[in-house]
Input
Amino acid sequence: MVELTINKIKVKAEDNMTILDAAKSVGITVPTLCHLKDLVPSGACRICSVEVEGFRNLVPSCAYPVSEGLVVETNSPRVRRARKTIVELLVEDHPQDCLVCVRNKNCELQDLAERYSLREHRFHGESKEHSIDISSASMERDPGKCILCGRCVRVCNEVQKIGAIDFTNRGFKSIVTTPYDKGLNVSDCILCVQCIVVCPTAALRERSSMKEVSSALESRTKFAVAQIAPAVRATLGEEYHLPLGTDVTGKLVTGLKRLGFKKVFDTNFAADLTIWEEANELIHRLVNNEPVPMFTSCCPGWVKFLEHNYPDLIQHLSSCKSPHEMEGAVLKTYYAKKLGISPKDVFVVSIMPCTVKKFEASRPELTEEKLQDVDAVLTTRELVRFFNVAGIDFADLNDSEFDNPLGESTGAAAIFGTSGGVMEAALRTAYFTLTGENLETMELNAVRGTDGVKETIIKIGDKELHVAVVNGIGNVREILDQVREGRSHYQFVEVMACPGGCINGGGQPIHQKTDKVLQRMRALYEIDKKMLKRRSHENESIKTLYKEFFIEPGSHVSHEILHTHYHSRKK
Output
């Protein structure tokens, strides 16, 4: 421990801490832009500069280590003037379109401009002009709004380890872009959009589907239905200042009905259906000595990563569609037939925590009779905008139930939104299918949490099943290399592209606090714990669906409608 003085307060800090961390430990807030917790600091933006006694220049507090006897001022006139000047320069090189910007009132540059009372334009000069990249089905890239903080570059390169974007050129011509400045649609980007989550402005944003959904809701011929992913119900309340992790399922159903959706279903129903099919596929692979480990296929960002980088391992991917695609397929076949509606008139909208689901919905492999399984995807953030435009006071809504028969679900489906949740849910059912008995304990703590790679061994009868859970796409290469080289001992592997799983997806409310992720995860586990039925094979509506339509898991009909295939994207 060392002792230093910050703003005349004696502070004891660990000797590996930075001035920024030490200040935060005693409740002193120092603004940052380029800083990302848990990554090596870059000190690029200089917004966090502080004055240190005896130093000629201001120093970046995010990158400067504490030492014994250091005397620091974080709010001196010199510091305030420097920060204000930096913000002014950033604002002058930024489009002056805050009122029509998607990040209005949720923009870190806007917040800093307010904090330092910018009330006039002191600097005038040339501004950068760039075209907007709208080539991707999931996101847009607007270099004109980029402030070169580098956070998107760092999360893509250091956390996700994709390297789809980076800095190019120098000085005034510096820009964050893709290789050769091509569109995102031809880059190695997997559209996890963790870059959007860390972007302080709207330089990176999701591709909005609000117009298509509005048109469907206003149409007299379309039968518009919505489905809600498990992760959305534990996070949307944050946008209405409800306590972190509040389960807003009932309010969501009510709100969507008020928007004009004819029916509102639970994607958790299809998550249970996915488990029936996936557990059956895993058992079939094990019994028939087919390629293992089997990789889960619920995360389209992970699937896209494999197609780009390890296409020779595609055979290891489960052929199961992701839950919301299964739900869409069931709605346009079984449900449309039950109601006597033409599948062409059923307009399926998925409310997702993820932007890559937009790309997934547009994949030609995910269609039934040339109709998309899912017609449009709205992120959690987009749904909030919908509610605001409609004048819906979400926090005061009453609770409603999902529509049936595609609304029943179990606790196993709820935990799909967390890293390790798919694995845990699948093992609950696979164990029962193989032994005829239920697992003694349903909480598989070995696959829970935020560690990069988690593994465990499940004893099923006289056999052992080696499983692994990958949390964040940046941690998957070692396992893939082991599989490629024939060194893997796993039979089943879950991969989620986003750190923490869907609960921290790129379409979720934007935040910079890691503790939020943990509280969101706990909320889904609480939903599971409170459910009367916590195993997918206990879902009575799924049993009815098989009896009336799919016959059994892995049948010809289920393969036609609930399964798909993937292809190489390697260049």
